[in-house]
Design goal:
single chain, alpha/beta, TIM Barrel, ten-stranded parallel sheet, two-stranded antiparallel ribbon, 13 helices
Length: 433
């Protein structure tokens, strides 16, 4: 299906185009369902809106939040989502995605504690409630750039991601993987001390834990079978769980359920099935995490922002023209989220990729929640561009086109360049390409 630029002035036009391309987009005229409360484990969630972990690349060299970091989270707090899912925070210096990625340490944990206190205070003052705060703990793996230049740590050679094969020395040895697992114990302990309600063991977008899920060709205890390919993630959970002391503190993951690469280089596809999503192993993994670690929610995503960003972030203009209509990708995400929510009806599932449909993102999120295709709706690019959409939806029942994200990819370009990332359209006084 031919790629097409977003051009829909009304929700009816959007719905008509979705029907034409057979895209699953359950739009709703009414958005009030997004403001109904729900429970996440021991925590009351005031609404169904989640601000997704969008990395700002604006920490200090020692890992502390920088001025722009604090500004961003104060804006998020004022907007009033039910959950603020804090961006990627590195577990070790070696696995930072940039020299300015956040990194939580014994020396700077008080800086994070002051920030979580500030977030709660601002949201309480502006909205009358406090959000649930989740920190994303990460190992950047293939995308590690601790000094600002690539120092990749790969699970295996992946041709779709390596135009020029990387040296064998980049493949992480089993002993290093064990050390990386142990780091999640420290991250969990510090995460609690910093005042977060939960910690995300990040397993998405082809960072290390995610890449290992597709390590079919890797020999040894971390490759081949489902048990081996999930070993790293399970051991990271085990290490993190061993440090839990705070009542109500929980573990979860932002989880890739489909990479968008063929077998044996992508998770979420079957052997010989090309690029058709197959979520059987994703269901198996979620069931395992639910049973063994009592996760109170799961955050679903797909694709790789570096190689096939159209899979999880459909766009109008980018570095390549996708061979599919953007609404096909949008529908694939919604359908995958729905399949998993129906497979686990008692587990809150967070949907993703709503931002592409601009001012109709709230209508799509409401339709998904209203029809029980997901429990909560996550917004990433939109939170950068237009955090106050939460207030506008609540007051007016709609999002305003002149404020919405336009899916230009500018924030991702800044991130890839290792410079502070934000919206170059709606927040241009602060962020520039």
């Amino acid at each position: 299906m031919e790629h097409r630029i977003f051009c829909y002035k009304t929700m009816a036009e959007l719905a008509e185009e979705a029907e034409r391309v057979h895209a699953f987009l359950p739009l709703s005229e009414h958005t009030s369902v997004l403001f109904s409360p729900c429970r996440i484990g021991a925590h009351a969630c005031p609404n169904r809106i989640v601000f997704q972990p969008m990395e700002g690349t604006d920490g200090e060299e020692d890992g502390r939040p920088g001025e722009k970091t604090v500004r961003r989270y104060e804006r998020f707090a004022k907007a009033g989502p039910g959950i603020i899912w804090f961006e990627a925070v590195a577990t070790l210096p070696r696995v930072r995605a940039s020299a300015h990625q956040l990194m939580l340490t014994e020396e700077n944990v008080d800086d994070y504690a002051r920030l979580t206190d500030r977030i709660r205070a601002v949201c309480r003052r502006e909205n009358g409630y406090e959000p649930i705060l989740i920190m994303q703990s990460t190992n950047s793996g293939r995308y590690s750039k601790p000094q600002g230049y690539p120092e990749p740590l790969i699970a295996y050679h992946c041709p779709p991601l390596e135009d020029v094969p990387l040296p064998d020395s980049c493949i992480v040895k089993d002993d290093d993987l064990k050390r990386f697992e142990e780091a999640y114990e420290t991250s969990s302990r510090l995460c609690q001390k910093a005042g977060f309600d939960g910690m995300d063991v990040k397993c998405c977008h082809r960072y290390l834990a995610c890449e290992l899920l597709s390590a079919y060709t890797r020999p040894g205890m971390y490759g081949g079978s489902f048990e081996n390919r999930t070993r790293f993630l399970r051991n990271c959970y085990k290490a993190a769980q061993s440090a839990i002391r705070s009542p109500g503190f929980f573990l979860t993951s932002r989880l890739n359920v489909y990479d968008g690469f063929p077998y044996p280089y992508g998770f979420g596809v079957g052997e010989g099935s090309g690029l058709v999503p197959d979520l059987r192993e994703a269901r198996q993994l979620i069931a395992l995490l639910k049973e063994q670690y009592d996760i109170p929610l799961i955050n679903i995503t797909m694709g790789n922002p570096y190689k096939n960003p159209h899979v999880n972030r459909p766009y109008d203009h980018g570095t390549y023209v996708p061979d599919e209509h953007p609404l096909e990708g949008e529908g694939r995400m919604m359908k995958g989220v729905s399949e998993l929510q129906h497979a686990f009806p008692d587990l809150p599932v967070i949907g993703s990729a709503f931002s592409y449909v601009r001012q109709f993102a709230g209508n799509l999120a409401a339709g998904m929640v209203e029809n029980e295709h997901c429990t909560l709706a996550g917004f990433g690019r939109m939170a950068f561009a237009y955090p106050d959409f939460v207030r506008d939806l609540k007051a007016d029942g709609r999002m305003h086109p002149a404020k919405a994200c336009v899916a230009c990819g500018g924030c991702a370009q800044l991130l890839r360049a290792g410079t502070p990332a934000g919206c170059v359209v709606r927040d241009r006084e602060v962020y520039h390409l």
